[in-house]
Write a structure and sequence with these properties.
six-stranded antiparallel sheet, 7 helices, Nuclear Transport Factor 2, Chain: A, ten-stranded antiparallel sheet, 425 residues
Length: 425
């Protein structure tokens, strides 16, 4: 599996180039079988006397430091090895910079510092699109803020389910957000709560953005294939000329279903729809006209379809309850919530997938979970047993545009399906 190098690795590699003399780059053609390639390790001794050992203080090196909680520019300069006299000049120049005055924990700074403690260059990526620099200008320093253009790459990953979706995507070095987008896009065809089987496998193509060879952020999922119990399902991203976007099958059918299969991705069903269930609080047998999803308090709950809020408040054993009115005879209910989402009130318009509340244990509940009901003409039905309405295909003009953009994405999925490499960058 390919791994992303940190900036520290990158600059240590670059610093070593003068001693290497020649650098070779190798590529592996798609379809090449690598398991039978002979590997040989060559170790060569180098006498220290062959390397110039004197240090006049003029050699400079790239150094990296991660910003910790409570760090200041002064503490970073000390760890970077900047001389105290130099540091005073740097701090004086940085006095007017708000970004350098409020460093963000978790981000990193890069600096070129001489062996004598002189600062030559300082770089701090404040956000994905803004870089703050400190550059030497004679004996003084100048602060600069400039936009940065990130390098976009398409990343390809594949993996196989052993125990769980997130376990498999972690093993394939896939960010959780991309895994969630795949599950969301294919949720109309696959119930990721109960349909997964050992041996199911996936292929993904997604955007990633780099600066100086370092991963800065991931973009959107571009294409996905999930083979569930031997049957393949594909999702291809498309944005039309009017700016409408979504995921589609290779023949142009929209994957945005009128209703999502679940209000909570990746949550275990703790109690199903039943005509008779022993109620853990009331200690009696009664019908359970909904689906219970076990999840920690505060886990987000999403609307399964576009809707209008019919009710949001406290109601008996449901505790904090939201009822959404959808198209036609359909409505859904979400009970035992700890709190409501922002703007959730009677009459509010809600988009599919919008967070409407958070898991809790209000009302008659022994622990935190979501009680979810799907209603037709106000009668509870088992949503896992219903054939729900689907969306419509692209029109003729958009379908032609889709075909030209979808072809290379589908080709990449085909490549992943027939390659023995875990990832391609």
């Amino acid at each position: 599996m390919n791994r992303i190098f940190t900036r520290k690795h990158l600059f240590l590699t670059l610093a070593a180039l003068p001693f290497m003399g020649v650098v070779a780059a190798f590529g592996i053609a798609p379809g090449t079988h690598t398991e039978n390639v002979t590997r040989e390790t060559v170790v060569e001794n180098v006498e220290l006397s062959q390397i110039q050992a004197t240090d006049s203080g003029a050699f400079d090196f790239w150094r990296e430091e991660r910003i910790g909680r409570g760090d200041t520019l002064q503490s970073l300069l000390t760890r970077l090895g900047v001389d105290s006299g130099e540091a005073r000049k740097v701090l004086a120049a940085a006095h007017e910079s708000k970004s350098l005055g409020r460093l963000i924990p978790g981000r990193s700074v890069l600096a070129r510092v001489t062996s004598g403690g002189q600062l030559m260059l300082f770089r701090y990526l404040v956000s994905d699109d803004k870089l703050v620099t400190l550059t030497r200008n004679g004996g003084e320093f100048k602060v600069g803020e400039l936009p940065v253009a990130l390098e976009a790459r398409q990343i390809m990953r594949s993996g196989e389910i052993e125990s769980s979706l997130f376990g498999a995507t972690d093993a394939a070095d896939v960010p959780d957000r991309i895994a969630s987008e795949m599950a969301e896009a294919l949720s109309g065809d696959i119930d990721f709560h109960k349909d997964l089987r050992r041996g199911d496998h996936f292929s993904l193509v997604y955007e990633a953005f780099y600066l100086d060879g370092q991963l800065v952020k991931t973009g959107r999922l571009l294409a996905a294939e999930f083979v569930n119990q031997g049957k393949p399902y594909q999702a291809l991203y498309f944005k039309d000329a009017q700016g409408r976007e979504g995921y589609f099958t290779p023949d142009g059918q929209s994957l945005k279903r009128a209703f999502l299969k679940s209000p909570m991705p990746f949550s275990r069903i703790s109690s199903g729809f039943s005509g008779a269930r022993f109620h853990p609080v009331l200690q009696t047998w009664r019908a359970h006209k909904g689906i219970d999803y076990a999840a920690p308090t505060g886990a987000p709950v999403r609307a399964v379809a576009d809707a209008k809020v019919e009710f949001a408040g406290r109601q008996g054993g449901y505790g904090n309850l939201i009822v959404l009115k959808h198209q036609g005879a359909y409505s859904t209910a979400y009970g035992h919530l700890s709190r409501f989402g922002k703007g959730i009130k009677h009459g509010a318009h809600i988009a599919q997938g919008q967070v409407i509340g958070y898991v809790g244990s209000t009302g008659l509940a022994t622990g935190p979970h979501l009680h979810y009901e799907f209603r037709i003409n106000n009668v509870q039905k088992n949503p896992l047993a219903l054939k729900l309405p689907t969306s419509y295909p692209l029109d003729a003009r958009a379908k032609a545009q889709f075909a030209s953009k979808a072809q290379p994405l589908a080709a990449n999925l085909e490549l992943l399906r027939h390659t023995n490499l875990a990832s391609l960058d």
